[in-house]
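User: Pectin acetylesterase, Solanum tuberosum:
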Amino acid sequence: MQLLLRAIFALLIVLITEGHPVDITYLQSAVVKGAVCLDGSPPAYHFDKGFGAGVNNWFIQLEGGAWCNNATTCLERTKTRLGSSKLMVKTVSFSGILSNKAKFNPDFYNWNRIRIRYCDGSSFTGDVEAADPKTKVFYRGARIFSAVMEDFLAKGMKNAQNAILAGCSAGSLAAILHCDRFKGLLPPGAKVKCLSDAGFFINTQTISGTSHIEQFYSEVVNTHGSAKNLPQSCTSRLKPGLCFFPQNVAQQIQTPLFLVNAAYDSWQIKNILAPGVADPRGTWRNCKLDILKCSSAQLQTMQAFRSEFLKALNSLGPSSTRGYYINSCYAHCQTGTQETWLRDDSPVLSGTTIAKAVGDWYYERKRFQEIDCPYPCNKTCKNRNFE
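Assistant: Predicted structure for Pectin acetylesterase:
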């Protein structure tokens, strides 16, 4: 028991020294605009103001948390923080790319740093005028994005000199889909770029050979009325559901984009490659929780997934402004956690931390477009274990 208490105490010390608490802000003025969470509550964010040379620089991170694809799953989300701001914690810890310490975040520590909470289930793309008459659920993600951006412009973002729209997971997908729109809100002279962390979800088949994620994304887009808010450069060519896949969107994005992703993205392995519906007997359960528990056959399947991932990435074609950091870790979202963003023991690719690669790309000190060798070659990886 004493050992456990010591371990917990040590972890708390690390969190206190590496992160700092930032209180929640509820955007009550958004409600009259219909910009509300699934349950009708106001959108929310956490805002840590910039200082010194960073007062006119803005880093905006869109929170992740998957999606809801029909009336039932969206109603279920209203009972969680992912569908209601009433259920969100009042304070979150900023660390990694949101840190306010130069030691932990040398390029962005003194910027205005914001985390927009995710409560719409559509990667901020939905906009259905009327609430669902049966469930009383609102599908208004795109309105939330517009309302919070208007609020930040009024709070000084209209004078931005530098700005990044970023996100994690579903928030990262939102950062890709809204990237050019975000740039259009800012002064013409501002340096504006977008950062995707674990948002390059690929359209591939499950272990049972079904197109599970393609069908799921189509249902998300249909449920939320997202089509009109997806990039027209994609919807003019493809069915709207296919425009939820970055491989079909990113090539046409005009704003510089950086992709941070694990080639063995743990969320994609668990939910795209081997979701429960494709694995009714649960033969992949232990493997999905811990890559060290995967059989040789399962690892072979995951290597094939990596090949599909790299094929989708390469289909974007060459770009002098696009950057990417594709490591071979079993992980999901690596910029918001100090351990993987920048620490003495952080993962490296070509001898470079994620923080250094992103900073060099943003400030155009050095181009970074690197893909790791296959698992398990990178011994610096922080491979996640799940419960």
